Amino acid sequence: MEPLPLPYLLCSLLILLHTPTSKSQPIYVNCPTEANYTANSTFQSNLNLLLSSLPSAAAPSGFYNTTVGRNGADQVYGLALCRGDVSSADCNACLTTAAQDAVAKCPRGMSNTLWYDNCMLRYSNNSFFGIADSSFWEYMWDGQNVTDPQQFDDQLGQLMNNLATKAAYGLGRPPLFAVGEVKFTSFNNIYGLAQCTWDLSPADCYECLMTNIGRIPQCCSTKMGGRIFGKNCVVQFESAPFYKLAAPPTPQSNGTSTVTPPRPAGSVQNTGKGGSQTRGKDTGGKSKSLSLVDSPHCGICYWGVVGNSN
Ligand SMILES: *[C@@H]1O[C@H](CO)[C@@H](O)[C@H](O)[C@H]1NC(C)=O
Ligand SMILES: *[C@@H]1O[C@H](CO)[C@@H](O)[C@H](O)[C@H]1NC(C)=O
Ligand SMILES: *[C@@H]1O[C@H](CO)[C@@H](O)[C@H](O)[C@H]1NC(C)=O
Ligand SMILES: *[C@@H]1O[C@H](CO)[C@@H](O)[C@H](O)[C@H]1NC(C)=O
Ligand SMILES: *[C@@H]1O[C@H](CO)[C@@H](O)[C@H](O)[C@H]1NC(C)=O
Ligand SMILES: *[C@@H]1O[C@H](CO)[C@@H](O)[C@H](O)[C@H]1NC(C)=O
After folding, report:
1. DSSP per-residue codes, 233-291
2. What lines the ligand 3 site, CB under 6 Å?
3. How far is CA 103 from CA 44, 54, 114, 145, 275, in A?
4. What is the pLDDT of residue 10?
5. Closest ligand 2 atom, residue 38 Cα
6. What pTM did the predictor assign?
7. CATH architecture of the domain with range 137-246+263-306
8. Distance (Å, rounded) from C-alpha 184 to C-alpha 191?
9. Separation of 271 CA from ligand 6 center, angstroms?
10. Using a 6 Å cutoff on CB, does residue 253 contact ligand 6?
11. Ligand 6 pocket member 256 (CB < 6 A)
12. CA distance linking residue 240 with residue 267, whole number of Å
């Protein structure tokens, strides 16, 4: 059964809500209301413990999953994942915000998932580690249309399929993450990202990514950018760089002026946190972000909600 898309134009509202000094807002919160915990219960204190521990536990590597509590009914399972190209400091900041938002955005909820540009946080009283669940998905798209949809789709498909393989089976660092670009026109590239939570097996990661890539036509047909995010994996593409590029491999340079060759079309790379990626002032890469709250061209970006089944 395919749930109906319910697009909302939220931009103006979000701009009103978004003050420049506020911390980042979640892109989406999935808070099913069927299961609520009672105030001051053991579950609540377990959840608080989980939320207070996840950011610092996940920040160094970019991922952490843990369980708090012994008793089945009071146990809470949680995981935190940062986008593979963000620094530990940014990871920690994003997850700290997520942990603070979690209860505020989902009072008494026993299960909750929050997505941000740089991270996601999920918890539940039910064990979900290692369980691929592609039934739930959300999407966003860039309102600009591509001029040559056929060529764009061909290139995009090639890029995203490569990224799914690279993320799932590439054995890069961080795991289950890949970014890359493909030439679209002589002066335009398409940039893509694929990432899974680390509790998935490579095969489940690949399956999750391909499922969401297969949703791109539904979500973002002819659009210059799109993002599909689920509980286990995220795919994203845009017409401008939106991830922090890994430092190019140091050529056997002896200090003479070397012209860095452009990366070949269709190149796919895993970006690690290691090495010497420079953190700029955090402006450039955001200019084409699809995030409603961060996007400078929010007047033409839309928000879609699909399949809120869980
Ligand atoms: C859980 O709490 C939410 C918000 O407080 C409420 O809307 C919902 O009806 C509650 N669910 C149950 C099953 O009580
Ligand atoms: C929970 O604990 C707080 C602080 O101790 C208290 O103010 C509140 O009344 C308690 N709520 C319930 C439902 O017991
Ligand atoms: C984290 O997830 C893995 C993969 O499913 C699982 O084997 C492990 O037990 C989990 N860790 C904790 C602390 O629950
Ligand atoms: C989680 O909570 C729901 C709703 O209260 C309940 O149906 C389910 O059995 C709980 N899961 C566990 C593992 O206790
Ligand atoms: C993009 O194309 C769609 C369908 O062809 C059209 O409805 C929409 O207005 C276009 N959007 C922009 C920003 O041009
Ligand atoms: C640097 O390396 C290039 C190529 O190996 C060589 O031609 C050049 O002479 C070197 N320059 C210096 C300053 O060592």
Report:
1. EEEEEESS--SPPPPPPPPS--SS--PPPPPPTT-EE---SSS-----SS-GGGTT---
2. 65-67, 129-130, 199
3. 10, 14, 11, 38, 36
4. 34
5. 13
6. 0.76
7. 2-Layer Sandwich (3.30)
8. 10
9. 29
10. no
11. yes
12. 15
Q: What does residue 141 show for φ and ψ, rounded to 5 degrees?
A: -140, 160
| Cα distance between the two ends of the chain | 14
Domain boundaries, the chain: 19-124, 137-246+263-306
Angle at 285 between CA 113 and CA 216, to 5 degrees: 55
The yes-or-no answer to whether 19-124 and 137-246+263-306 have a common fold is yes
Cis peptide before 174 (omega within 30 of 0): yes
Q: So what's the pLDDT on residue 310?
A: 40
Beta strands in the chain (DSSP E): 28-30, 63-68, 76-82, 112-115, 119-124, 137-142, 177-185, 188-196, 226-230, 233-238, 268-269, 301-306
Residue 156 contacts by C-beta under 8 Å, 6 or more apart in sequence?
182, 190, 192, 216, 237
* 65: three-class secondary structure by DSSP: strand
Cα 178 to Cα 47: distance, rounded to the nearest angstrom: 31
Pure H helices in 106-231: 149-169, 202-213, 216-220
β-strand partners of 78: 66, 123
Whether residue 201 is predicted with pLDDT greater than 50 in this model: the reply is: yes
Kindly list the strands in the beta sheet with 119-124, ordered across the sheet, starting from the edge strand earlier in the chain.
28-30, 112-115, 119-124, 76-82, 63-68
User: 64 near 79, Cβ under 8 Å?
Assistant: yes
Q: Which CATH class name applies to 19-124?
A: alpha beta
At 77, the amino acid letter reads Y
pLDDT score at 23: 63
How far is Cα 19 from Cα 65, in angstroms, rounded to an integer? Answer: 32
The amino acid sitting at 32 is P
